[in-house]
Amino acid sequence: MLSRRQMLKYSGLGLLAAGMPGISFARADTESRLVLVILRGAVDGLAMLAPYGESAYKGLRGELALAPPGDTDGLLKLDGLFGLHPSFSNIHSLYQQQQAVLLHAVATPYRERSHFDAQDLLENGSLSPGGRRDGWLNRALAPLHKTGGKEAAIAMAQNTPLVLRGSEPVTSWAPSRLPDADDETLRRIRNLYSSDDFFASRLQQALDSREIAGDDMNSRKRKNRDAQSREMMQATAKFLMAPDGPRVAVIESGGWDTHANQGGATGSLANKFRNLDSSLDQFRRAMGDEWSKTVVAVVTEFGRTVRVNGTRGTDHGTAGAALLLGGAVNGGRVVSDWPGLKSSFLYQGRDLAPTTDLRSVFKGVLVDHLSVPHTLLNKEVFPDSAAAPAMKDLIRNS
Q1: Which of 200, 230, 244, 351 could make a disulfide contact with 317, Cβ separation 3.0–4.6 Å?
Q2: Looking at the domain assignment, is residue 3 inside a domain?
Q3: Helix (H, G, I), strand (E, B), or coil: what is residue 234?
Q4: Residue numbers of the domain that contains 345
Q5: How many domains does the chain have?
Q6: How do 83-84 and 333-335 pair as beta strands?
Q7: pLDDT digits (tens, 9 = 90+) for 17-57
Q8: Model-level pTM?
Q9: What pLDDT shows up at residue 30?
Q10: Which residues, in sequence order, are CB contacts of 170 under 8 Å at separation 6+?
C-alpha cells in the first residue's frame, strides 16, 4: 500500500509531467552531435532514392515509377543511376553542398516482414528480435560519460524508445497536449518535493527542459501535423545547442506504411517526404554554427516491395534506403553496392536485395563522429557483428 505522502508525490509528479513536453536526452563529453531519426512503418526506398537509370525500373514500378530528371515533376538528379524524390529539395541542396550521403540496398540482419520484430532488431542491435532488451545507442553512450552522472542523450518522445533504453542515463521530452502547470502549482510542488532529493531533482530536470524548449512548444494552439514536426525539430536543436545539454537525440516519425494509394511525384507519400524534408531543413537552420558538428541519420526498419500491389501501394519488403545528413558528413555521394532489379536479382523474387548491413553504417558514424572504440562496437554495442565492419569515410575529416 502507498502512503498518503507517496500518493501525493506520484500524483503531483504526474500532474507536472502531463503539463510539460516529454523529451529524452543525454549530456556527453563531446561537442559532436548525433540525431537518429527512425521512420516507423517501412519507407519505400525505391521512391525516396529511385534508380531511374536501371533498365528494369520503369516496368517493375508501373504507375509508381518517377519521371527522370529534367521531366515535369521529375527526380532530382544525383548521378546517372539514382535520383531523389522531387519532394526532397532541401536534402538535394545538402547533397550538392557535400553534406549528405545517400545509402541504398541497406538492411538490418532481419529477413522477415513484421514491423514489430523489425523495429525491435533495428533498435536492440542484436541478430534477432528480442535478442537484447536494451538499445545499441544506449550501450554506445558509455565512453561519452567520462565525468559520469549526467544524461548524454534525449528521446524526443513521451516514452523512451528501445534504442535508448539501458544502463546509461538518458532523458525524454515531448510537447504537452495539456495546459501548463501555473506558477502557484509549481510553487506548491516545489515545496512538496523540497525534502526529497529524488523528486526534487526530477522536478528541476523537467523545468530545465521546459525552459530550453521554449514556451512556443507548450501552446495548445497546435497547428497542423507538418508544423508540429518542424517545431519538434526546432526544440531538438535547442536541446542539442544548450551548453550543458545532451549531444545525442532520437526522434520517431510514424505513418510510413504505404499499402494503398501511395502516389508518385504527388500524393500521400510525396506529402510525407515534403514534410520530412522541411522539418530536417528547419533543424539545420536552427542548429546554426553547430550544424558543422552534426550528423543526422534517417533510417527505417525495412524497405518495400519492388512491384506495385493491387491497391496502388507497396507491401513489406527487405532492403531500403537511408540518409546521413550534416555538416560533419563527408557527403555529395550515393553509397550503394547496387544489386539490380532484374527478377533473378530480387530477394525472394519480390524485394530489393540487401547488400549493405545498416550496422556498418551506424558503426562508421559512432567510431569517426563520436569516437566510440572499435572494441566496444563488436562486443557490446552490436554483439556478434564482426561480419559487419564499420563503414569508412562517412565523416568529414576535421
Answers
A1: 351
A2: no
A3: helix
A4: 22-189+224-381
A5: 1
A6: unpaired
A7: 333 333 444 455 678 999 999 999 999 999 999 999 999 99
A8: 0.84
A9: 78
A10: 24, 25, 26, 138, 141, 151, 152, 153, 154, 155, 160, 164
